[in-house]
Write a structure and sequence with these properties.
The chain is of the alpha+beta class. The chain folds into two domains: about 130 residues, Aminopeptidase; about 160 residues, Gcn5-related N-acetyltransferase (GNAT) (Aminopeptidase). The chain is built from eleven helices and 16 strands. It has a seven-stranded mixed beta sheet, with helices on both faces. The N terminus is likely disordered.
């Protein structure tokens, strides 16, 4: 009976393209929050930060939501994956079949696109990307028993330095984050600050850090807490923090805090082996997602 209902719903589904001004943000956010695969990146305020004037495909009175970000070049529309959103795609509290997913893809307002679908958008098309997550359904002691020897060794090393874990205000976090020499010089600090502030004010993004006995803040992290998913968003360590393996201890403190109190710890990647090794050291497993690309000529390739 349930299967028949799914088929019937998918056949009569009315998918509507809605421009930014027509989207009911309240209904949108309620739907994302109740969606089985709801992610922080898909909240209206988050999208407003990273892709102003985003549009959407919406079906059945906000039962299915597909945010889209359209750019134009030489009057040609093309879709891009916005910076700071690892996964978007189709969201719903209903089951998302591959057939339903493709109904939305076929309604995209451009033949040229690059879209990161989310982990629940099942399809064999596109490129499979790695995301690493850790289930938090066990007591901390059981989570810790799955740590690698190297991870445990680094946590002990950091602990021997006398660090204390602390919540941070937005201002304290930004002061530390922006003074650290980031490897990626292209990091858009203003946009990151805007996203963190918007989430912090709404209670969906939190800031924390490790403080040394000398009151230096040697590791900081802005993390999301949305829909039972703790997201490792914006980490940074000072040179002293790197030498002392402070980030190992910081993640361990968060796992201790959220064990059995949240569903997943989402490490957000990575395809970089060294970073992935760090995540796997805590027992993280793969939860892949797909990237769809079509008709991406060089003169259109870019990010918002």
């Amino acid at each position: 009976m349930y299967f028949c209902c799914i088929i019937k719903r998918s056949r009569c589904m009315q998918i509507e393209y809605m421009d930014h001004s027509s989207i009911d943000k309240k209904k949108w956010d309620e739907a994302i929050l109740s969606a089985d695969n709801g992610l922080l990146y898909a909240c209206s305020w988050y999208l407003d930060c990273i892709a102003p004037k985003w549009d959407a495909l919406i079906a059945n009175d906000y039962e299915y939501l597909f945010p889209i970000t359209v750019k134009h070049k030489y009057k040609l529309p093309y879709l891009v994956q916005p910076f700071l959103a690892q996964q978007l795609g189709l969201f719903s509290s209903n089951r998302i079949t591959e057939s339903i997913l493709h109904k939305f893809i076929n309604k995209l307002p451009s033949y040229s696109y690059e879209i990161n679908l989310n982990y629940a958008n099942t399809t064999q098309e596109g490129i499979q990307m790695t995301n690493l997550v850790l289930a938090l359904d066990k007591p901390y002691e059981q989570l810790q028993s799955a740590y690698s020897k190297n991870t445990l060794r680094n946590i002990i090393k950091a602990g021997s330095k006398g660090y204390r874990f602390s919540d941070l205000s937005f201002d304290a976090f930004i002061k530390c984050y922006q003074t650290i020499d980031h490897r990626d010089k292209k990091v858009n600090q203003l946009l990151i600050s805007k996203v963190i502030k918007a989430g912090f004010d709404r209670g969906y993004i939190h800031c924390c850090g490790l403080i040394s006995p000398y009151d230096s803040v040697d590791a900081v992290l802005a993390f999301g807490n949305f829909n039972g998913r703790i997201s490792y968003l914006f980490p940074a360590s000072s040179e002293q923090g790197k030498q002392n393996s402070a980030m190992f201890m910081l993640v361990d403190e968060l796992l201790k805090l959220y064990a059995t109190k949240a569903g997943w710890f989402d490490f957000e990647g990575s395809m970089i082996e060294g970073i992935a090794r760090f995540y796997r050291g805590f027992g993280a497993i793969e939860q892949p997602y797909r990237v769809l690309k079509q008709l991406r000529p060089s003169f259109l390739i870019g990010k918002i």
